Amino acid sequence: MVQDWKTLVAAKRAQVAKALPQEWRLPSSILDTVSPTADTNVLDVPAKCGLLTEKEIDITENHDATDLIAKMAAKELSSFEVTQAFCKRAAIAHQVTNCLTEMFFDKALERAKYLDDYLEKEGKPMGPLHGMPISVKDSFNLKGTYSTIGYVSFISRPAAESNSALVDILLDNGAVLYVKTNIPQTLMTADSENNVFGRVLNPNKLKLTAGGSSGGEGALVAMRGSLIGVGTDIGGSIRIPAFCCGTFGFKPSVDRVPFGGQTNPVLDGWTGIMPAAGPLAQSPRDLRLFLETVINSKPWNYDYTALAMPWHPVEDKKTLTIGVIIECPTWPVQPTIIRALKTATDKLKQAGHNIVMLEKFPSFAAATQLSWTFFDIDNEGTGFKHIEASGEPWVTSVKDMYTPPPEGRKVKSLGELLDMNEERLKFRKDWLKVFMENKLDVIVAPGSHKTAVPHDTFRMPPYTVMWNLLAYPACIIPYLKADKNIDLPDSRIPDYDPEAVDGAPCHVQVIARSEQDEELMAAVEMISKVLLS
Amino acid sequence: MVQDWKTLVAAKRAQVAKALPQEWRLPSSILDTVSPTADTNVLDVPAKCGLLTEKEIDITENHDATDLIAKMAAKELSSFEVTQAFCKRAAIAHQVTNCLTEMFFDKALERAKYLDDYLEKEGKPMGPLHGMPISVKDSFNLKGTYSTIGYVSFISRPAAESNSALVDILLDNGAVLYVKTNIPQTLMTADSENNVFGRVLNPNKLKLTAGGSSGGEGALVAMRGSLIGVGTDIGGSIRIPAFCCGTFGFKPSVDRVPFGGQTNPVLDGWTGIMPAAGPLAQSPRDLRLFLETVINSKPWNYDYTALAMPWHPVEDKKTLTIGVIIECPTWPVQPTIIRALKTATDKLKQAGHNIVMLEKFPSFAAATQLSWTFFDIDNEGTGFKHIEASGEPWVTSVKDMYTPPPEGRKVKSLGELLDMNEERLKFRKDWLKVFMENKLDVIVAPGSHKTAVPHDTFRMPPYTVMWNLLAYPACIIPYLKADKNIDLPDSRIPDYDPEAVDGAPCHVQVIARSEQDEELMAAVEMISKVLLS
């Protein structure tokens, strides 16, 4: 606190810069085009920049993780070459989107070599993730690595002395960790900016937000600098970066993927809406690989907060009954996303699925308000105190969403919490009714009323946070792109700018009831098959 | 509130008395011996009183529910005759222990007849509980029946307009409901006494407590007036009556057996330690029948609070690794129960199970204190307000345990709750360590430091509430009886009176980690086989 916060940041940034090998640096011809106001799409930079070999381009572009792992198990590829390809590609992605916080490529390559030796010696892979590089959000702890989570006041904390439960599980299954990814200050906005690591840019269009809070994962996975990235989600933090950047993003039910042992911006005794860890990926089967591997590893033996619920097979259905929500009255949805939803609905109907258009459902406005009251449950404002501890300023998106009213933050009583719990249960009751009365397997709905939008203009995420309030699992399927020539202005949405978001990824969100992660996974595979093949 | 509370009670009692058929009344020669200070064991009254036919004695004494259901499915017995036998036996049990609140024998017999016709017409049973009478705690709602839960202020409430989720599931599986069972005022003591229905007596010895809060179930099931009774447990309320009365009592993990739609003494938004519904029974396989049937019915389709976790098969182990706790330093355990535990441990060792004597474990004293702080989470004291609403007095056990200090009840802040949550997580962390470091499948521990004791002297239940704090499932196995000639006085326990508790049932408690109800059920079957065969 004595030291000026900018000095601390400068030192931290120098440390990060040093972790980026000289020989993987992009030429200034590319770097000079990088700016948070540029219209540039940088998704093709890795293939075109000349830093990757043909083989590295093939490894990172033409396979999903499931495929690469099979090739490593068959010794067609080594973990070393796969890891090196993704280390390089992640380094490239970072230079154009600022998606990383910590890079530990040497450690990763050492681990990859160890795994190659292991396979040679043991004659079998270490586990279902053998040899595969997996990226994790900065909040996950990895022994010997820092978890700053974007707070200047956390810079001086020592490196982690133990692994998060999920990190242990990934390692026990043969994964290689190589990078941690960037997030917003407080982890509670959809703009992944903080004073330590700066802002994540959207690789589809640098001037758009990459989403948040797992924004670094969104950008990195979209650029195929990682094929399985791990985020966390308490209001949309896996799904928002997924749909902003154009990847799959699966928010599981609470406590099925172990959340324990992370560096947390809030109090340990946090109550109300609970966060969930989950994967961002480029294919549904990589989501399944991650979920099945993690849950089959019995997370409850690693983490005292994990649910001891085995992964179970689901009924093999040929057709689904799908409830479709196009929009709620409070937040009209951009034409871009309505087009994606309607096109998807038509295709699903044609494919023989049973579609129920939902006109009446519980209020997204009330749910969003209730959720934000839950997020403000800590009267101490611990997440904000961590900002103030160093004297660093609030970033714009935090200021926009959380500046207290002139009379100050409202102190909540225990009685108010009990009332909130009751209101929340009412939502669970009403949504169960929607599911049962319509015999729904899943709901398809917008993940947001907006695609990625210019930085610091995203704000409230009503279409994701509803499902956090209910503790329902939900998954983003990337689908179609915004097109200014088709998705014309809508007088109901004055801030919709077809030009600004042209080219931004669109999506649909698929939702199942709580703990029905298996059913959701199966539905995502079925729906993706219809939409994307 | 205008009406004198005693007038309301008199009217309610007259209504209850009317529900007891004249022809099932016990002679005064028996009734005159019933008193809360009598040494009498009334377990043999049903067989000896002359009200039951030979066949009814056979039906109620020589079979468990699993067996009777098989016989009904095979048409060797009708549901009508089975139901009539249990209606009569429950009526007898009630007259000597005061275990019932509501009796609806006519409705039950009508339902039984319907089920017999159904079997005839459909050629198959309605479900795995076809034709079987099942008793439920007074808090469960059944359309057209009252749920007074022992509050005078609830007497004037109308009969339930809908069923509890669990009641719907039981009925959908072919069960017959016939009685609801007695509980303590507030549901928060181990002495099932209230001003509406009076006090439940222990059939093993009338002067001892039947336990609580599911005390009516304990007495009824012990007398075989029911073979499967449903209780609820937030601090021991299934297990305490089970071990007081000498039955099995299985407290599942939270929300696996649906809890929703009950008449509740507390606020709907209650948080912290959550209650669980579960069975009391006379055989382990009846516990399994209940649990598998309920969970296979997908409670999450009935109840928005139920966990969508299917019942899963468990690894077939030949031997278990069992951690054994004999006692904690704060609450020395009666010689009666220590003898049961040590005898059980020896037998289990002889049977080839791996025994780990646990000497170091988290503090039962701290856990009990924390639990009681959680139970006081509602600053409104809603459970007490329901007493005060009618002007009825607090019963002795409620007075003893909950009389506020002279300075009044302490108002808790939201921040205190978050601190409590954190402390609770620490317990989960520490117990996981105990399980993992010792590679335990289950723990065997006392369910209490006391057997059933004279009325209003039971008080704190540290050995049950620990597992509620953790949300771990736990099950009582009735085992051995207190014997004044063997279980001699212990200077560490001045209030242990070998004479008073002579003949009281002893027990062991088996505990598994949260959501491991399947593993616990399997362990209870294995351990029961060793102990009881």
UniProtKB/TrEMBL annotation, chains A, B:
Active site positions, chain numbering: K137 (charge relay system), S213 (charge relay system), S237 (acyl-ester intermediate)
InterPro entries in UniProt: Amidase_CS, Amidase_dom, AS_sf
Domain Amidase: from-to ranges: 81-520
Record carries keyword Aminoacyl-tRNA synthetase: no
EC numbers: 3.5.1.4
Domain of life: Eukaryota
Keyword field: Hydrolase
Hydrolase recorded as keyword: yes
Positions that bind substrate: L187, S213, I234, G235, G236, S237
Catalytic class of the enzyme: hydrolase
MF GO annotations: amidase activity
Catalytic reaction equation(s): a monocarboxylic acid amide + H2O = a monocarboxylate + NH4(+)
Sequence similarity: Belongs to the amidase family.
The protein's name: amidase
Organism annotation: Cladophialophora yegresii CBS 114405
Phylogenetic placement of the source organism: Eukaryota, Fungi, Dikarya, Ascomycota, Pezizomycotina
